[in-house]
Amino acid sequence: MSEPKSYEITPEHIYLSRRKFMVGIGALALSSLAVAACGPVSVPQGQVKVDETGEVTVSEATDDLGDRPTSYTAVTGYNNYYEFTTSKEKVAGLARDFVTTPWTLSVGGLVSNPKTYDIDDLRKRFNIQERVYRLRCVEGWSMVIPWQGFVLAELLKEVEPTSKAKYVRFETVYRPEQMPGQKGGWFEWPYVEGLRLDEAMHDLTLMATGLYGKDLPPQNGAPVRLVVPWKYGFKSIKSIVKIDLVDEMPLTFWMKAAPNEYGFYANVNPDVPHPRWSQKSERRIGENGRRRTLKFNGYEKEVAYLYEGMDLRVNF
Ligand code: MTE
Description:
Layout: H1 6-9, H2 12-21, E1 47-50, E2 56-59, H3 72-77, H4 91-95, E3 104-109, E4 115-118, H5 119-125, E5 129-136, E6 141-151, H6 152-159, E7 167-172, E8 192-196, H7 197-200, E9 206-211, E10 214-215, E11 225-227, E12 240-246, H8 253-257, E13 281-284, E14 291-292, H9 300-303
Parallel strand pairs: 3-12, 6-13
Antiparallel strand pairs: 1-2, 3-4, 5-6, 6-9, 7-8, 7-12, 9-10, 9-11, 13-14
Bound molecules: ligand MTE.
């Protein structure tokens, strides 16, 4: 299988109608971070270095399988962020002036203690940890990214979900004046994602505020985004302004855009092909050839229990 082009992840009917009727779419040191003990899935802490070519590296950092991080240049230069553009290489340029301060994140819905956090508040209040995770995009490519962030469960505990809360709904900022992709009428903005409450409470589920020891760049979802490493990358919603605890499964951005292609769970699964391509292998950015895709993106040990008794094909 060759990797799908960026237009191929776009639901076919939208891509085709867009092609017919539209012309384009809207056209340090890490060692100084206070790192908490982060349990069994923590990773060795690296130190950020810049070499003579300007490339940023994290010394000694690897993911839990021993894989080194993807280059800083690729992590910050090859992005999916449809609010700006569907062209991966153009996101960084278009997002350069995206305003991320001031920024507030409101957390409410079925909770006893709703809160609105300022971004600095989030950084100070919760334990910022380093986690080196694999990111597997549904399109068939992957990266290894050294994130800094806090475990979402810490925040959820603080707002006290009520017994009625079953799911968590996340929403990206809606700001068409700064996000040219949001001016196109083909998608329903804002971008929305969701997790079951137990998935959201899992220790691997991270709210990232940085990568490679620096604040998140706009193209990677500044100032705060979700990272759910065992699910396809589209679940890891960027630039979050609102989190709601709800009692029904949220209808997500991709479920609305292409219900036959993208589901709620979206756990990485080599045995369930995308309707238009296989998911058996992936291209690790920066490597030649392809790697075998791992069930739950290699986090099966940690998360398989969440889905016991469920037919994972039905629940794509
Ligand atoms: N979040 C929003 N708001 N908009 C998007 O277009 N793309 C998703 C996800 N989060 C997306 C998003 C997809 S498809 C992927 S693969 C990852 O972000 C890519 O994250 P990265 O650019 O930091 O590698």
